[in-house]
């Protein structure tokens, strides 16, 4: 749109309404309105950018926690010290990120940016997996919510309080910071979908854990595997195979979450395959357990990696 | 005895939440069905402007206003229902329809309809986002509470539909012998085009739709060019 516009008489035309053209920005009666809208939209885009950045970091840290946890070999009350230390330091980083994120996703903004908050699924996966490895039970959404809330408070607290507190949070109980921030401090809330999809991914992690731990210890993981529980006659300890069955059934029985049916079906299918793989492990152990040398890894179908393995 | 893998209460808790979500969507669908009917009807009536001379706009706009009244009622129902739940959880289900409703309101007012005491109807009047909120009787651009409202994006997208419709009207008005209308439209959408240039757009749906504005501008400028070449622009429209 360069050059001079002329009307049909050949007179140079004023291009933009009553006020006439101006060089840098074309101004007209509607410019102030658009400028106001622009400022609002910019604020929205900037906020989303900040959320996406924090989300990416939280996802990466959660994945690292999961990698650390995959080096655990059996289910027991306390994680090995070195692994616990790794988990703690990453959780402390996550806590800070969550505390920064919390004010951005209050009220109406929680769902506005929920598509940029995939990190919460990943965090659910990491926290439920850690909980399973310690207790052999599934962490419920309410306990999880208070755990995350504890993390946010911890992240918002001053530096020294964080150091003193890091262990508690990872220990499974909601942390009680020494000088709690104001009660109405913003927190990060989890949606029901964050929880459900996080637990879907948990089944994949449990499958991988079952595979390596069975290969290296020669027994299916269970919290009673190395203690007296073995002696009590028919009361064999519950194994990870049983837990996988229970989780599989759990998801089969739940109605499909209507938010994203396609994704639900996909995740459910992956879960089914994970259950099959662990079933196969159990079968192998019974049929040829006594013959198999220690460290032998069953030949599981490698075509379908568990979700979350891409990175 | 070790605790069970899954707390027995958990299943019912989750199932109840999923069921609730499903039911909300079902109820929403019913309201949205109604809204869709009213919006389509109003759009249909409005499309008659392309074959109606300007002298008969008043009758036509009366019918459009009736349609808008129905739209407003249904949006009121939607607002009451949707405000019970997180706004952005379900917003995507109605945003297209609300955009279309907004565009009927903007177009009707631009053509001279929807006259109010403080804002009498005249040709070329652009309703702002706030005035849209008044016309549809819902809040706009809410940030401090989580309830139904009309968003900035919905307003801008609705406005772009109007630009498109006006570029069509410019052609048809000329056919009906109303060359002044084409000149008027040309000035208006050129100003809007300049307005859209002010926005910093990300690579999203808004940007894609804004891109179409420049084609509308060109289309109408071509019409005005054809007219001026043939000396068909009436005197009183030349000032624009």
TrEMBL record, chain A:
Domain of life: Eukaryota
Keywords of the record: Cytoplasm, Nucleus
Keyword Chloroplast: no
Subcellular locations according to the entry: Cytoplasm; Nucleus
InterPro entries hit by this protein: Translin_C, Translin_fam, Translin_N, Translin_sf
Protein family membership: Belongs to the translin family.
Protein name: Translin-associated protein X
Automatic annotation (TrEMBL), chain B:
Recorded superkingdom: Eukaryota
Pfam families: Translin (PF01997)
Cell compartments where the protein resides: Cytoplasm; Nucleus
SUPFAM superfamilies, alphabetized: Translin
KW RNA-binding (keyword) present: yes
Alphabetized InterPro entries for the sequence: Translin (IPR033956), Translin_C (IPR016069), Translin_fam (IPR002848), Translin_N (IPR016068), Translin_sf (IPR036081)
Main localization (coarse): cytoplasm
Keyword field: Cytoplasm, DNA-binding, Nucleus, RNA-binding
Family recorded in the similarity comment: Belongs to the translin family.
Name of this chain's protein: Translin
């Amino acid at each position: 749109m360069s050059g001079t516009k002329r009307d049909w008489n050949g007179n140079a035309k004023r291009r933009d309404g009553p006020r006439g053209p101006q060089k840098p920005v074309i101004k007209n009666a509607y410019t102030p309105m658009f400028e106001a809208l622009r400022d609002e939209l910019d604020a929205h885009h900037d906020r989303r950018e900040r959320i996406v950045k924090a989300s990416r970091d939280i996802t990466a840290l959660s994945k690292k926690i999961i990698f650390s946890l995959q080096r655990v070999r059996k289910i027991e009350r306390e994680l090995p010290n070195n692994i616990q230390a790794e988990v703690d330091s990453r959780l402390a980083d996550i806590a800070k990120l969550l505390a920064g994120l919390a004010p951005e996703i209050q009220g109406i903004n929680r769902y506005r940016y929920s598509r940029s908050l995939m990190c919460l699924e990943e965090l659910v996966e990491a926290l439920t997996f850690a909980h399973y490895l310690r207790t052999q039970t599934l962490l419920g959404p309410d306990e999880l919510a208070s755990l995350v809330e504890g993390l946010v408070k911890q992240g918002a607290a001053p530096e020294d309080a964080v150091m003193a507190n890091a262990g508690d949070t990872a220990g499974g109980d909601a942390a009680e910071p020494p000088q709690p921030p104001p009660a109405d401090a913003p927190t990060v809330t989890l949606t029901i979908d964050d929880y459900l999809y996080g637990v879907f991914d948990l089944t994949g992690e449990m499958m991988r854990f079952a595979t390596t731990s069975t290969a290296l210890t020669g027994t299916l993981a269970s919290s009673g595997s190395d203690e007296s529980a073995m002696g009590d006659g028919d009361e064999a300890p519950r194994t990870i195979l049983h837990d996988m069955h229970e989780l599989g059934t759990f998801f089969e029985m739940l109605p499909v979450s209507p938010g994203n049916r396609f994704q639900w079906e996909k995740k459910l299918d992956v879960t089914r395959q994970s259950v099959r793989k662990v079933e196969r492990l159990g079968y192998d152990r019974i049929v040829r357990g006594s013959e198999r040398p220690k460290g032998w890894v069953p030949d599981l179908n490698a075509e379908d990696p568990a979700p979350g393995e891409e990175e | 005895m070790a605790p069970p893998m899954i707390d027995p209460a958990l299943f019912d808790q989750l199932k109840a939440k999923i069921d609730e979500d499903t039911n909300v969507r079902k109820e929403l669908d019913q309201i949205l069905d109604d809204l869709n009917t009213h919006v389509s009807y109003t759009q249909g009536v409005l499309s008659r402007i392309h074959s109606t001379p300007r002298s008969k706009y008043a009758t036509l706009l009366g019918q459009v206003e009736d349609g808008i009244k129905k739209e407003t009622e249904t949006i009121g129902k939607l607002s009451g229902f949707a405000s019970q739940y997180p706004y952005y959880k379900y917003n995507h289900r109605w945003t297209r329809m609300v955009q279309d409703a907004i565009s009927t309101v903007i177009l009707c007012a631009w053509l001279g309809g929807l006259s109010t005491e403080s804002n009498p109807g005249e040709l070329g009047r652009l309703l702002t986002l706030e005035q849209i909120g008044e016309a549809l009787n819902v809040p706009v651009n809410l940030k401090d509470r989580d309830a139904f409202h009309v968003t900035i994006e919905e307003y801008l997208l609705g406005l772009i539909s109007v630009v498109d419709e006006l570029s069509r009207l410019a052609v048809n008005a000329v056919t009906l012998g109303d060359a002044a209308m084409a000149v008027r439209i040309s000035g208006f959408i050129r100003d809007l085009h300049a307005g859209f240039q002010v926005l910093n757009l990300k690579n999203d749906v808004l940007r894609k739709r804004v891109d179409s504005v420049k084609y509308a501008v060109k289309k109408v400028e071509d019409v005005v060019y054809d007219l001026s070449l043939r000396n068909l622009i009436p005197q009183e429209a030349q000032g624009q």
